[in-house]
Amino acid sequence: MTKNIVVIGAGFAGVYATKQLAKRFKSNSDVQITLIDRHSYFTYLTRLHEVATERVDPSSIQYDLQRIFHKQKNVQLVTDNVTSVDKDKKIVNGEHGTYPFDSLLISMGGEPNDFGTPGVKENGFTLWSMEDALRLRAHIREIIGRGAVERDPDKRRAMLTIVVCGSGFTGAETIGELIDYKKVLARDYKLDPDEIHILLVEAAPTIINMLDRTNAAHAEKYIKDHDVEVRPSSMITSVNPDSVDIKDQDSIPTNTLIWTAGVKTNHVADSFGIDAGRGGRLITNQYLQAKGFEDKSIYVAGDDSNATEQGAERAVPQTAQEAENEAVVSSANIAADIEGNHNYTEFHDKNMGFTVSFGARYGIAQVFGGKRVRGWLATIMKHGTNLLYFMRIHSGYFMMQYILQEFFRVDNNRTVLPGITARQGNALWSVPLRMFLGIVLMVDAFSYNAIIPVGFGLTAIEGIIGCLLFFGLFTWIASLALIVIFFMGIASWPHAWIVFAAIALMNGSGRSIGLDYWFVPWLQKTWGRSRYGIPKSLYKNK
User: Fold this and answer.
1) Nearest to residue 41, comparing CAs of 58, 54, 22?
2) Under CATH, which number does the domain 3-111+264-349 receive?
């Protein structure tokens, strides 16, 4: 007799749990797993701020479910909007069909919690879906562009002011991306970067409270050093089209309010008739079974779950790491129900710490029992945690896509490797050729059997060109000089490969792991200013 496992929601918990169950029942043709989501793709929600600030393309955080599960023949993917769950008849109802289950996992994810604050839905922006990110992305471009040509100083300031409400993971990382993004916006719209004003508003007396106070202090110093205004103890009372009202403070003129202040259970899950706790999170026991329906094999994981370790006072935070942990426990217990052994696994908080990125190059990590890591290395660790998820769901394809999108296919040098790799593959892959040719020329210049005859007096120049190519300095000029010297002093067919190698190196290879990465922009900036001046907005009122 076929047994049906239904998973609602293809988020961090849902995808990972489905992978675990598919592996567990790989050889059991009597078990069918159905994964239902309103989209046909998995969205990497913790990177939505990167899309909103144009660091990466939207497609780079959307992962097609068919590709993720193409080897799992016991998994059926369904695109549908779930409307209700009949717990007695054990049926999931959707807009386009019904799905009977023997075991059910509810992992629909959360949604923004505005705590009833007036105007947030109408005038604010959130970051809980791809639609949210694209809407904010388009708005920022549009409003900054309008602000750049606005002559009225009050309207101009409101248009060029971005307010982020909430300093949790999403809020802090959004602030970090905005720090990098405003330089791009200022360049594109010929603005002074200082005109783009970024504020972080937090209702609590302190900010970034998931970190200890030492790390939080470093984070606060970083964002303040980058001209972000921080306002703790500032509760937003209403959001207007052109301003934000703060309790007991003056209003902030702005057309852009990004709300990241809270999360609650998906509103659809609210209607399932399961007892809820703080933030609407569905209450579960130590096995992540829904309270009151322990005999129905109904489990809850991810942002929907009020997962609490035995003896703990509060539920675990709603993070991707905890969602993965809950996926492991819930999938193991669903398997126990299906197999009929009831050998349940208890939920334990296995939080390994936090990693928070503030833009492309600075991060703060608090890991392995409270060890503190800050700066570039912490950002690398953040990338590592993201890559680890793809390893866990056994998706090498999307792991490679992540690497390409975060390190190689990034505009404006917004990478952790400060743009060294962000020149697309055609330039990066020429680096070994550049270094090899440089070594060949340097060795040849001091050999008795030189490619370029001593009689031409060019071996010293050959050595200099070799050094320039190896270190990636004046690469284009050095390559051109090598071609000229070839025809002056070599012009032999066995060495003709040098010409073609030099041509290949004229694609900007010196700016990939070479000194040209720093020298060429400096030259462009210095020489360009002296020749063409500095671009300025004509609409700013002094």
Assistant:
1) 58
2) 3.50.50.60
Alpha carbons 78 and 80: distance in angstroms, whole number: 6
pLDDT tens profile 192-245: 999 999 999 999 999 998 888 999 999 999 999 999 999 999 999 999 999 999
d(CA 152, CA 150): 6
99 touches 3 (CB < 8 A) = no
d(CA 484, CA 467): 17
The two tokens of residue 8 are 């609602």
Query: pLDDT digits over 496-522, tens only?
Result: 888 888 888 887 788 788 888 888 878
Is residue 93 within 8 A of residue 86, CB to CB? The reply is: yes
SS3 82: strand
Q: What's 120-261's CATH class? A: alpha beta
Q: How many CA atoms lie within 13 A of 375 on its CB side?
A: 2
120-261 matches 3-111+264-349 in CATH topology: yes
Please state the pTM of the whole predicted model.
Answer: 0.81
The two three-digit tokens of residue 17, written as one number: 């749990």
Q: pLDDT for 75-91, tens place per residue? A: 999 999 999 999 999 99
pLDDT over threshold 70, residue 118: yes
Give me the residue spans of the domains in the chain: 3-111+264-349, 120-261, 425-529
What is d(CA 413, CA 180) in angstroms, rounded to the nearest whole number? 10
* Residue 135 φ/ψ, nearest 5 degrees: -65, -45
Residue 230: its H or E element: strand 228-231
Token code pair at residue 432: 């070994």
Number of H helices, E strands in the chain: 18, 22
CA 359: distance to chain centroid? 10
* Beta strands per DSSP E along 260-352: 263-265, 298-300
Residue 135, amino acid: R
From 362, 124, 356, select the one nearest 255 (Cα to Cα): 124
The residues with which 300 forms a beta bridge, in sequence order, are: 106
SS3 539: coil
Give the helix/strand (H/E) hosting 530. helix 516-532
